[in-house]
């Protein structure tokens, strides 16, 4: 059976930076550690005046196609995952295709285009769609272009404001990939939840405590479901575990839960039992509250062990390095976690050929998906082609007053007339409004 997976990827971050410790925290009257230690974030990325989900997605896609020497005739499918769409009918993929047609002689008229929505998990669902399309033999030797693009903007003074971010990830899905091969096994955890939603509104309504609990519950279900089809899981089976990362602090909680689950019945679990005791079992407690208190006490002890901390440092921490600098990208967050982990491996000379990743995606509302990926020879060249470090370094750093201005620019309800902070160059840019209220774009050389 021919391997199908991600052949290559590109990342595009918003061109503005808000430093959380030096700029945001003082303006909010907060201790910088609330953000750098509690949330695990150092900075957020924002789109400039001429940037939005279309330009970021189109710029990532164009870089990817140009680097791989592709033309529209090579692409049979364009799927965009976003929860920042501005049209309830016309998909963002058509706008992005229109942008790309400005720089190619051919068009995408014979490519299937769509838009996926299920909060942050829709980027992974779009990968699944592309994988299934190729597996079904419907691709006619063409590849799929999957783009996750979002501007995660919160209302001013909302508790989630510090987690904001903006950027896009473009992924080429094809046979015989050069980055990772996707597994056929998947696990799901899904329930009707109201942890985070946007009912006909731009800014999310979030029940913060509930959102954390729902994230962890669906992740646990997905991991259990994955083990049903993939077999027993051991902590040493996977080189890294990229999680959906709304902020790194959330991943700390999910990683502890996941580790606690996968060591059960293993040699690692036996060693942990000798060190901190056996994991609590519900049957041993009279009430749920007693059981949950015991689980919390056990998990706290687990995360303090040297064995767990070594596992976390090698398996989880490398996947968080991009997110710390750019914030939450919603549909793209788990995919920049994958890129960050592989980038760390390349920079440290790790040989990951045929090693495996366990990818844990999540979307509020709510659903989690867990699947495995095999890293294939060629991954180092593909990861080495990314320019995300340069993009992060070159962002324009906002003062707090400038942040307030750019927030108004991207707030659909606010009136603003702000000059751009940077100049577009060799990229797509917003170019005003059309006669039917549509957004228009042009390529700026």
From TrEMBL:
The keyword Mitochondrion does not apply. GO terms for molecular function: hydroxymethylglutaryl-CoA synthase activity. Residues 195-409 form the Hydroxymethylglutaryl-coenzyme A synthase C-terminal domain. Keywords: Acyltransferase, Isoprene biosynthesis, Transferase. The keyword Ubl conjugation does not apply. Residues 3-175 form the Hydroxymethylglutaryl-coenzyme A synthase N-terminal domain. Belongs to the thiolase-like superfamily. HMG-CoA synthase family. NCBIfam families: HMG_CoAsyn_Halo. This is Hydroxymethylglutaryl-CoA synthase family protein. It comes from Haloarcula terrestris. The lineage of its organism: Archaea, Methanobacteriati, Methanobacteriota, Stenosarchaea group, Halobacteria.
């Amino acid at each position: 059976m021919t391997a199908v997976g991600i052949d290559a990827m590109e990342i595009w971050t918003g061109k503005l930076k808000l430093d959380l410790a030096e700029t945001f925290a003082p303006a909010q009257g907060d201790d910088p550690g609330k953000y750098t230690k509690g949330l695990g974030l150092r900075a957020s990325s924002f789109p400039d005046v001429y940037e939005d989900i279309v330009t970021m997605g189109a710029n990532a896609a164009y870089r990817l196609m140009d680097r791989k020497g592709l033309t529209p005739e090579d692409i049979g499918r364009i799927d965009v995952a976003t929860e920042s769409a501005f049209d309830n009918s016309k998909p963002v993929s058509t706008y992005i295709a229109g942008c790309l047609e400005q720089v190619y002689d051919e068009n995408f008229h014979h490519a299937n285009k769509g838009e996926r929505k299920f909060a942050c998990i829709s980027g992974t669902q779009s990968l699944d769609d592309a994988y299934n399309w190729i597996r079904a033999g419907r691709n006619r030797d063409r590849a799929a272009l999957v783009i996750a693009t979002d501007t995660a903007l919160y209302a001013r003074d909302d508790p989630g404001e510090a987690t904001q971010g903006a950027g896009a990830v473009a992924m080429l899905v094809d046979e015989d990939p050069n980055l990772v091969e996707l597994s056929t096994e998947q696990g799901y955890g899904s329930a009707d939840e109201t942890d985070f939603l946007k009912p006909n509104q731009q800014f999310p309504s979030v029940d913060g405590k509930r959102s954390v609990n729902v994230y962890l519950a669906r992740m646990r279900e997905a991991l259990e479901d994955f083990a049903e089809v993939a077999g027993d899981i051991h902590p040493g089976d996977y080189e890294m575990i990229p999680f959906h990362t709304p902020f790194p602090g959330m991943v700390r909680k999910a990683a502890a839960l996941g580790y606690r689950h996968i060591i059960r019945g293993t040699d690692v679990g036996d060693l942990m039992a000798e060190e901190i005791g056996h994991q609590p079992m519900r049957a041993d407690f009279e009430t749920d509250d007693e059981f949950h208190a015991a689980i919390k006490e056990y998990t706290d002890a687990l995360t303090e062990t040297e064995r767990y901390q070594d596992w976390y440092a090698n398996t989880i921490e490398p996947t968080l390095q991009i997110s710390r600098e750019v914030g939450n990208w919603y549909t793209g967050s788990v995919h920049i976690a994958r890129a960050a982990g592989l980038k760390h491996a390349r920079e440290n000379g790790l040989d990951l050929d045929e090693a495996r990743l366990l990818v844990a995606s999540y979307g509020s509302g709510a659903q989690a998906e867990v699947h495995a990926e095999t890293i294939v020879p060629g991954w180092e060249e593909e990861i080495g082609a990314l320019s995300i470090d340069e993009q992060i370094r070159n962002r324009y750093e906002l003062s707090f007053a400038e942040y307030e201005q750019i927030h108004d620019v991207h707030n659909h309800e606010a009136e603003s007339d702000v000059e751009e902070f940077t100049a577009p160059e060799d990229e797509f840019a917003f170019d005003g409004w059309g006669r039917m209220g549509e957004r228009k774009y042009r390529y700026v050389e």
